Amino acid sequence: MAKQYDVLFRLLLIGDSGVGKTCLLCRFTDNEFHSSHISTIGVDFKMKTIEVDGIKVRIQIWDTAGQERYQTITKQYYRRAQGIFLVYDISSERSYQHIMKWVSDVDEYAPEGVQKILIGNKADEEQKRQVGREQGQQLAKEYGMDFYETSACTNLNIKESFTRLTELVLQAHRKELEGLRTRASNELALAELEEDEGKPEGPANSSKACWC
Amino acid sequence: MQDGASKSCERVTGGGEAAWVGPPITGSWGHLPGHPPGPPTRPSPARAMAAENSKQFWKRSAKLPGSIQPVYGAQHPPLDPRLTKNFIKERSKVNAVPLKNKKASSFHEFARNTSDAWDIGDDEEEDFSSPSFQTLNSKVALATAAQVLENHSKLRVKPERSQSTTSDAPASYKVIKSSSDAQLSRNASDTCLRNPLHKQQSLPLRPIIPLVARISDQNASGAPPMTVREKTRLEKFRQLLSSHNTDLDELRKCSWPGVPREVRPVTWRLLSGYLPANTERRKLTLQRKREEYFGFIEQYYDSRNEEHHQDTYRQIHIDIPRTNPLIPLFQQPLVQEIFERILFIWAIRHPASGYVQGINDLVTPFFVVFLSEYVEEDVENFDVTNLSQDVLRSIEADSFWCMSKLLDGIQDNYTFAQPGIQKKVQALEELVSRIDEQVHNHFRRYEVEYLQFAFRWMNNLLMRELPLRCTIRLWDTYQSEPEGFSHFHLYVCAAFLIKWRKEILEEEDFQLRGFSPSTARRAFNRLIPFHALLPREKPPALVSMGRWNPKAHHTWRQQGARGTCTRVS
């Protein structure tokens, strides 16, 4: 089996309970949307490969439970992430206010240089809007983040925001990336050889680059 | 299938005193009618020592992961204690020597010998003299099997059943399926939003079988009639329940292999410690507890909108529509209000944990079981406005108290940092590392952490992984075990992992595909023959459960299965 990706990233979705983290993820990975949903317990994840700048990037997206009680568990995943989505719900002022708390958690637990992006989800619920777009923009600017208003329901800005965060992570790891580009073809051949022998040597070899 | 029986028999005698270990699920649920009737519990000295042994159980130094206890499936409730006694005696006699000399741990032996217990044979009618049966090399197994079969045949009503079983079950299964199908497809066409739900990967793909209506009510219209065995069991339950002072030990014993639907509500109330054993006190107790609960409501429920309870109530309110979203019953406003009250009152009365997501799931089995007292069929589509206010209030109060009793035993799962879950996940890892090193090493090699997939198994007691009716059946057993929801649950989780060891070991690129809770759940939903969890429900299907499956066994041997296979010479 030929390698299906060049690099592996871990992205993390955080934000209050019910802002639509799981829906964003389902829309992105499976292009599905479900209005009724089960709550996420602890941490779940999905995988997707996208191509950015000619590089096949396998992204593992960790979806976390928003309830505070789960944070002991979810924080364990912060340090392994290269990119983080901070999600609020535009129809919930409260979830927007809490972004501050989420940011400080990220500062505390995530590795330095982690890429962040702010998401105001449920942009389709215009009648229920409690958080203006400019409020989102302003907050994002304060923290030096990119900002998207998204809707998992109408598929607004989903692909864009996931791709953007992936690009940011790629840029942040440009150095390693250069090395990867020059070595890419050799490693591919090597990986195939190993698989022919049926002796995969473990995860280190199965993904060519994993910065975690 | 006879094979399965004899294999199990051969294994179950281990050393009669240790705490529960790994395989009870495979051993008991994968069973067949040929299995010995007998109580699920160990001999009484065993009970006394269980607590002591369980303390030492986790020590790595123990040579064996623990001894295998007699485990009897739901097919095999205790019928005649004398028979059981003799049977156990006989088995231990036969097995004493070989077991001592075995190098491998009794668990591995057990696992090896029951590894095909879940396979569903292709043939429905394989008779006892088939060649595959004879391929068993063990005389012990043959002798045991013969004994089992003889015992069993005495207890079975042969003439009508033998033929009708095969035709009945698929038929009734179809009936169930089609009615549910209709419901599902109606929903699908009704709303465009519902439709994709079926495909949604993060939701369990529910098998198309009603929740509880058919769990064991063979005398419902269209369902096969009760077997004599089932009637005897029900009679036994009724006797126990109506005696002046219900013998709770005996009731637990009887409930372990599954509680008949007809008596489940009252049995659950007793097992959970909600109802007193004394029949005379029951009515009063119920009345008092129900009043007490509604007293709480009166006193506290209005505070849900107050500042200090706002977070709790908001979270509950968000989660209620997300509780079993595919089951119409739980989408009814009246039902959702009941759930909100139950959860809110519980939460504010337990400030150490408060409401934690997942606890909402834990109300559903109680609610459905107590509701089933008033609903003949199709509970999941039942419109609760058909019930009187009084009835609904009773269901609500009883669900609250029974859920509270359950949570008392696992509250550390939900307190700050969820230490109960952390401990249990660690314990699971430790257990698996000893009973199935290969699987354990495989996880390590591919950096799959137990916490990744097992956190939710502990937090939601596998309710996200199993259909509700299976959870209900599982809780029959949990409630008849001391610390069933904490301690015993761990072994059920381990049994699940080992059940899927082949699929797990075949997965080499976890990074590529991922082994997330969803993956595990999908695997379960796709592969678990759920009826295996409910042996009483469909006897004919069960017949095939423990069936000797030469093909599966062959494959299994081909894979080497840790290099040794003592079963076939």
From TrEMBL, chain A:
Q: Name one Pfam family in it.
A: Ras
Q: Name one GO cellular component term.
A: plasma membrane
**Which Gene Ontology BP terms does the record give?**
protein transport; Rab protein signal transduction
Q: Where is this region: Disordered?
A: 192-212
* Its membrane topology: Lipid-anchor
Q: Which cofactor does it need?
A: Mg(2+)
The top EC class is hydrolase
Identify the SUPFAM superfamilies for this entry: P-loop containing nucleoside triphosphate hydrolases
Q: Where in the cell is it found?
A: Cell membrane
Task: Write the record's keywords in alphabetical order, separated by commas.
Answer: Cell membrane, GTP-binding, Hydrolase, Lipoprotein, Magnesium, Membrane, Metal-binding, Methylation, Nucleotide-binding, Prenylation, Protein transport, Transport
Catalytic reaction list: GTP + H2O = GDP + phosphate + H(+)
Q: What InterPro entries does this protein map onto?
A: P-loop_NTPase, Rab15, Small_GTP-bd, Small_GTPase, Small_GTPase_Rab
Q: Does the keyword Cell membrane apply?
A: yes
Molecular-function annotations in GO: G protein activity; GTP binding; metal ion binding
The yes or no answer to whether the keyword Ligase is present is no
Q: What is its EC number?
A: 3.6.5.2
| NCBIfam families (UniProt xref) | small_GTP
Q: What function is annotated for this protein?
A: The small GTPases Rab are key regulators of intracellular membrane trafficking, from the formation of transport vesicles to their fusion with membranes. Rabs cycle between an inactive GDP-bound form and an active GTP-bound form that is able to recruit to membranes different sets of downstream effectors directly responsible for vesicle formation, movement, tethering and fusion. RAB15 may act in concert with RAB3A in regulating aspects of synaptic vesicle membrane flow within the nerve terminal.
Family note? Belongs to the small GTPase superfamily. Rab family.
Assembly and binders: The GTP bound form of RAB15 interacts with REP15. Interacts (GTP-bound form) with MICAL1, MICAL3, MICALCL, EHBP1 and EHBP1L1.
Q: What is this protein called?
A: Ras-related protein Rab-15
According to its UniProt entry, this protein's organism is Suricata suricatta (Meerkat)
Organism lineage:
Eukaryota, Metazoa, Chordata, Craniata, Vertebrata
In the UniProt record, the gene name given for this protein reads RAB15
UniProtKB/TrEMBL annotation, chain B:
GO function term, MF aspect, one: GTPase activator activity
Q: Where is the composition biased (Pro residues)?
A: 34-43
Q: Where is this region: Disordered?
A: 1-56, 153-182
SMART domains in the record, alphabetically? TBC
Tell me yes or no: is Translocase among this UniProt entry's keywords.
no
InterPro entries membership: Rab-GAP-TBC_dom, Rab-GAP_TBC_sf
Which superkingdom?
Answer: Eukaryota
The residue ranges of the Rab-GAP TBC domain are: 258-482
Keyword terms, alphabetized: GTPase activation, Phosphoprotein
Quote the function comment for this protein. May act as a GTPase-activating protein for Rab family protein(s).
**PANTHER family from the xrefs?**
TBC1 DOMAIN FAMILY MEMBER 22B, TBC1 DOMAIN FAMILY MEMBER GTPASE-ACTIVATING PROTEIN
Q: Under what name is this protein listed?
A: TBC1 domain family member 22B
Q: What organism is this sequence from?
A: Suricata suricatta
